[in-house]
Amino acid sequence: MSEDTNARIAALEAELVAVRRREAEYRVKMVQEFLDRGERNTYLHTLREERAALVRRQQESFADLELLTRKLEAEGERVAALEGQLGGIWRSWSWRLLAPLRALGRQPEKELPEPAPGVDGGDFTYYLHTSPFRIYREDAFTLRGWAWPADGRPVTAVRVSLDGRAFIGRHGLEEPEVLAQHGEHPSNPRPGFEITFPTPPGRHELSLEALVGGSQWLRVMRTSIWCEPKAP
Hints:
Elements: H1 3-91, H2 93-97, H3 99-105, E1 120-121, E2 124-128, E3 135-136, E4 140-149, E5 155-162, E6 165-168, E7 170-173, H4 176-182, E8 192-198, E9 202-212, E10 216-227
Parallel strand pairs: 1-10, 3-10
Antiparallel strand pairs: 2-4, 4-8, 5-6, 5-9, 7-8, 9-10
């Protein structure tokens, strides 16, 4: 072969090698782009699932709140109806005529101890991580949060009063994010608390209370709650 022919063959081979190299680089880029898109799609899919779960939780909480409101309204109407019936009985002639007989058969009543004084209100800054405004479906519930009084006195204990029955909780838990946001509180450096209490079926009065200064229980918040176990 002539030198010119050999030169052309070498040039063609070099061009073929260059084409193959560009093809390989193109394939590598395609694979990388595919992987990148797959990762992005997986991340977006995860975000969509989390958003859908949050929407479902919000809808469930709204439904629970509506159900709770209706149950409390129905319970209030039932109590009012019973009070009306009781008032009618007291005003009836038969009740008045039988009053002497009831007085004869009545046993002497024992003196009952004086009830405990009511808990005074207080001005608190507080937050509840687990909301008490819900339908309670389990046998027990744990209320978590933090609180301190506006006057700066130390909180030495916390409790939940459920229909007058007290449940003492854990106090002095760390809340670094709260202190970073609201500033240091020398009297309450660890304002977190955790209280577990039973939730029997029915309507109850719940009161969150704090022992301030080691001597006085003050009410942080109060609400009616409704407990309804899950259907079997």
